[in-house]
Sequence to fold (362 residues):
Amino acid sequence: MKKKYIYFFGSKSADGNAKMKDLLGGKGANLAEMANLGFPVPSGFTITTQACNEYNHNNNKYPTGLQSEIDRNLSRLEREMGAKLGDAKNPLLVSVRSGAAASMPGMMDTVLNLGLNPDSIQGLIHKTNNKRFPWDAYRRFINMFGNVVMGMKHHDFEEILDRHKEKANVENDTDLNAEQLKEICKDFIAIYKKKTGTNFPTDPKEQLRKAIVAVFNSWNNPRAVKYRKIYEISGLMGTGVNIQAMVYGNTGNNSATGVCFTRNPSTGENKFYGEFLLNAQGEDVVAGIRTPEPISDGKRVTLSVQEISKYKKQIGEALQGPTGYGVYGTRRKAVYAPDTQWKTYNTGGGKDSSRYGKREAY
Fold:
């Protein structure tokens, strides 16, 4: 029987489910389960931990048939989203995330906005009628790709960004205009070439392949290996790779990004909890660049709190425990993705307190 290396999710159904964490990793299994439950999860596909295992045991080469599966599932994703990866007129952008069956530090962080290049930026400007947002997305992509995929230091990019903000006499990234962000992108590409010795890739499929390989390689980086040894984590094949259509929280003040929990992550109280940032992307929530606002008061959220929180009980029951989930959207629509980065901890409140999750990162 031919091996299946990729499981698709979206359109209110998925190839996998929550019981397949060993094969799909925590994020992949939960994305599949949420799609099966009919939640508005952006479509995508998960490359299995088995593919990672075979890559790492095959001199860092894709197993036979994996690339053709990636191509087929990418084409399916493009059909579902009605857009094409990196297209000059109607671009599809994706996120790439690692996701092992057990959470651990050292695994590859998220890459957002993959598929952007000088041509697709113009397509996104035309598609959204928004000149600022695509350049903001591009500078984020260059930063994340350089850091996460190529191993550059964050401060290589932060120094440039801080210099441009000082020159523009603004405090926040959100105060930079399209032309200023365009200049930042030029400087980011220049420092990328200086530090890596290569040009920043403009071919979307090359970008995707490099990101997938970086996820596979992160399974055996020193931090991850040491963590598994210390905590006696064994028997796992590797990490899954989750490729998912982008939803943008940084198109302006009518969009937002955030995270919700089925319980309070600090106290374990069985109460809906969440935070959000207007005009931002996911990494802004945890980076400390801006202070998130509570979703629960709903004062500045154009989406109703009821719409976001109505899934609380279903998610908690389906994923069998306290769970966090990312929320991204505009004033018209919210979409969701599971946050599986949980570790049990003891709150000192008795034997049951260890079941409450603590959010590590998203």
User: Anything to note?
Assistant: The two ends are 37 Å apart (CA to CA). Confidence is low (pLDDT under 50) at residues 328-336, 338-362.
